[in-house]
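ok so I'm stuck.
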Amino acid sequence: MTPLGLKTDHDWDFLLVNPWGSTGLLVAGIVMLLVVTVAWRSCRGHRAGHRILLFGVRIVAAVALLLTLLQPTLRERSVTRSPNAIAVLVDASRSMGLQAKGESSPFEQALHLLGRSKDRLAGWSQKRRVEFYTFGETLQAHSGLEGVKPQEERTDVARALEALGQRYAKGDLAGVVLVSDGDDNMRLAAGRVGFAEALVRKLGAPLHTVWVEGRSFRDAAVAEVFADEFAFVRNAVKVEAEIVARGLASKQVEVKLEEGGKVLARQVVQLTGGRDRYRVAFEFVPQRIGTRTFSVSIDPQPGEVVLDNNRQLFLVRVIRDRIRVLQVCGRPSWDERFLRRLLKRDPNIDLISFFILRTPASQALVPARELSLIPFPTAELFEHELGSFDLVLLQNFNYGPYGIGTYLPHLRRYVEQGGGLAMIGGDLSFASGGYAGTPVGDILPVVLRPGANARELVETSDFRMALTPAGRSHPILQLGQSARESRELLAKLPALSGVNRVVGAAPGTTVLATHPRLKGDDGAPLPVVATREVQRGRTLAITTDSLWHWAFVAVGEGLGRGAYDRFWRNAMRWLIRDPELRYLRVIADQRRVKLGKKVRLRIRAYKADYSAAKGVVVDCTVRPPSPAKPFTRQVTTNEQGDAVMSFPPSVAGPYVIVATARIEGRESREEQTVLVERQGRELRDPRPRSALLRLLASLSGGEYLGKARELPELSFRDPEVLRVNWRRDLQLWSQWWWFLTVVLLLALDWLVRRRLGHL
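replied:
not stuck anymore, here's the structure
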């Protein structure tokens, strides 16, 4: 419609030009009450008909006389008005575009409504500006609605009305005609009456609403999925989903919980008439840690209008519930006692501990069935149950007497496939335990001396370990709040006693601490704490059995046992490959990103000693959901070992980012998953709802028109006066006929009384 210009109108007002102000009005009111009282009392004693006639004449005369004193005036004005606006809002969200075969969509119905109301709109445009808008997530102005598509991802009626109020000055909005299916999925979704009332009050104009809907709408949707963001590996996880169905009564639908195309659980829902919401519950047990993508889905139903809402994805970060540790000790000792106490005290650790008190060759004076001690369960531990442990601790343990030699290849394979192994010193450990040249000896961080006698393999003198450059930054030896505090604390801790002699560090080993005086056969300082990567697993060597000094002697010296506890917790985190201690990390700014926003990732690379790995080239392969194709980006880390990568997702769904890099000759790989979701919740539960439209019309003083075929005549606010061109007052009280009327009324009172015989 073409906006109107200024219009000149004439209007009339009736005024009381009272020269005495509000005080005069108050006095006049009191006088009027007195006159009425006196008039009524003076009529007492007359017959009822005569009393009413006489009282009426006197009251009319008194009112005329009172108005004369208040000076009634008729005012004529010539005013210029600026035409105000009628805003026609049409819902353009995606739910308005849904249609069954052979039927019009709600948006098409809205256009038909406006087409049939063309004459009505033209009539309104003679006095006001008629302006068109569409809304969904935002408010958009249009000169006409031809070519507009319902593609908005949300229906936010509140935001549209707020934006509309900001576009018009006070009094410039005559009213609103809102055409929608009522499927608000934002702040007004819950029918908040108080909020809606404040909204229309601020708008300050009547709101007339029209409801449009698809007549044969059929849909089954996964409206909501209720799942925790975290779950524990090998522990049951519960997931609930809310299913919404319309037009599918007396049918059975199968709801599936899936991961990567594999069905984890199924539920069958029986749909019934008069009910459209159903709850289903699933339970599954995740077997691997990491960020995992799951989905709840419903197979497409015959005649179903919307298929986008049949499946909903969600992420669950699967973490360890408890670290499962196998501790095998050759004999009881102080070192074993303190470590076992620490492991048992930690609620996050599931400890299986064995102490060897007799061997198969031990002499027994009684039958084996009467002994409380059991033989060492070699087959159960090292063949059947080994893969269930996160970490194996061999503490001063010599395998030979227990028939374990045939199982050492199993232990090596366990490490290569991702397990953690720590060997702790003592006179039955390392070369003293016969591990030189064995499958386990070959994967340790230290090279063992073969064929040496016991005295050559163990040194018993006291010492304080010396940190290597790698040890200063490695997380295992971060015993304080900072690297400096850790170095100062290590210098204060009690001295250790005894160390296993070794040839030196194995290839690929990171030595964290050494003996201050002794050297290995290779001439380098003797390793005391050393780590090594073995394919997918890790090994740790501690060539002393006196770390318990940090827990016992340190307490006596007032240092507490905190350093001992932190050392072992750090060591276990490193051995089990805690995600925060990986050499290559991919960190997503957000795990869930809306379609249309960029996915932003931070890449961090560390050396074996966990110092920043600068200049590392990282290949990042992005595997998007179908039909998008995978692509690779290459980034290089800066001085701090960081790099940034971002990309705009093209479709909704899970994006798997796989980063690979070669750091110090070692291949590192890290994986991260980001879930890209549609912008809004528009199609999760796309049911037409009239209640909101009824509420808004009622609260604003407008009309709810329901499923109107065309717009009727509606009430709107008058435009505000912009300018008064001229004004003319006609003073009624000073006209001759006014005074004549007052005199005639007084004369009529006299005549009535005379005719009634009261004079």
